[in-house]
Amino acid sequence: MDKEKIVVVDFGGQYNQLIARRIRQCHVYSEVWPYTVALEKLADPSVKGIIFTGGPNSVYDEKSPHIDPKIFSLGKPILGICYGAQLIAYELGGEVTHAETSEYGKTIITRIGDSKILGRFSSPSEVFMSHTDRVSKLPEGFKATAKTEHCPIAAFEAPDKLIYATQFHPEVRHTLEGQKALEDFTYNICGCKPTWKSESFITEQVEEIRKQVGDKKVLLGLSGGVDSAVTAALISKAIGKNLYCVFVDHGLLRKNEAKEVEDVFGPNGKFDLNFIPVDASKLFFSKLQGVSDPEQKRKIIGATFLEVFEEETNKLDDVEFLAQGTIYPDRIESGLGISAKIKSHHNVGGLPKNMKFKGLVEPLKNLFKDEVREVGKLLGLPDSIVYRQPFPGPGLGVRIIGEVTPEKVRIVQEADYIYREEIKKAGLDKNISQYFAALSNMRSVGVMGDSRTYDYAVVLRAVQTDDFMTAKPYLIPNDVMINIVDRIVNEVKGVNRVLYDFTSKPPSTIELE
Ligand code: XMP
User: Residues of the chain with pLDDT > 70: what percent?
Assistant: First the structure.
């Protein structure tokens, strides 16, 4: 029998992978399957429970997704969430109506009677709602277990049928006690044991990768970032020297970064793989000479990266698979029938178009960032990589306003190094989502000793964000800031002024270009 799991049946909700992740947090394996999955697959003894996700449709829409009602006779515990709850009511003879008042966001529920799934909830309790339709009449044999001001049936269940439903989203953090409902469903109702761990993920993926690629060679572009590093460590564990990692140094990395990557993955590192470093900095600098438009710079860096990557990989014989460090948030959350989208953001220029591969290896594609970090730690990667801040593919190229020159790159590297060193020393590094030094293209007058200077102004940025779509400036304490500024102007030749960028996103972006 396959390993025991909870299957999340995807009806197009935004949070479907989040549900699976919350179940994995209970140390029980969970996967998302499309709603079109064959019933026999769900009938497999390894499937201990089924969760129906939310979705954008109304059960009455002509094109709304439905599922074979025989699913309710499989004898498996089922939990319906939002659209999933309405679908259960509709399929089993209840009624769903279009409510006059939509509920969106934080909402208060009050418990009604006993419940096997809300048994540990307080009453009242704060939950996250996002619906217009609601269940207005329960099917026979069901009882309501919670209500809100506008929704008399906010949760319902029929324990003898093993069916449970919540109109709210237990998987979302705004549902303060949501994890309790998922735990009770997983452990008490489905009878799962909390035995699945990140170690199990590694063992399973190692097997899976071996099965997929056999004795063939796999190519991976290493960027030094968390995702590609964890992918490399994992694949190397599976196939050792059949993994070829090409690391293109475009000369726009942070100070010492290329060396750090080499120390971990190179011949003196602890991983068994082929490490192919390529120092292409001269080529990048020559192509960037005289170019100051941000979009043009990005395009040149992307195209040159691809050119170098292709040239290097063309030297390798019989590579049949391409590996990518795609993680779940990189994929389009298109809802129904999610299909893996090739990550283009991180890969600077997208995929090598002239190379034909037999297949893609993306072992992290269902994981969230913190799960990836956990796997990375277990695989023995150093903290400097596991907790590395996001770094744009075009590197310092988008942190230098205007033309990029080796001299400007040196200035940013030195200033950024000091900034990072001092933030770490002050114990702030884990509190700030992203912080870095950039170079304004501005020079201004200063005085050094008895002489006039006309030097560059460095820009310091520090932001706090959950999703990097919006961000707020992080307030660095004055004493720490004064120390950083003093060190930068004293130690970095060519800088006589330091500015602190205090703008939110929007209207700014996090990077300067
Ligand atoms: P912006 O500047 O758009 O950045 O507010 C949002 C987040 O994305 C990162 N970023 C990039 N990452 N390739 C990447 O892999 C890129 O071209 C790129 N541009 C921005 C940025 O560092 C921030 O975390």
Answer: 95
> Does residue 169 have an active-site annotation?
yes
324-355: per-residue pLDDT in tens?
998 887 764 333 343 333 223 434 445 666 66
Active-site residue (options: 4, 157, 171, 422): 171
Q: Of 169, 250, 422, 511, which is the active-site residue?
A: 169
Tell me the C-alpha distance between 509 and 254, whole Å. 20
CA gap 139, 151 in Å, rounded = 16
Reduce the DSSP state of residue 436 to 3 states and report it: strand
Report how far ligand 1's centroid is from the alpha carbon of 369 (Å): 16
pTM across the whole model:
0.80
Question: 171 catalytic, yes or no?
Answer: yes
How many Å lie between the centroid of ligand 1 and the Cα of residue 422? Answer: 23
| Tens of pLDDT, residues 111-164 | 999 999 999 999 999 999 998 899 999 999 999 999 999 899 999 999 999 999
- Ligand 1 atom showing the smallest separation from residue 434 Cα: 24
Closest by Cα among 182, 178, 176 to 126: 176
**How far, in whole angstroms, is CA 131 from its chain's centroid?**
26
346 given a catalytic annotation: no
Q: How far is CA 484 from the centre of its chain?
A: 31
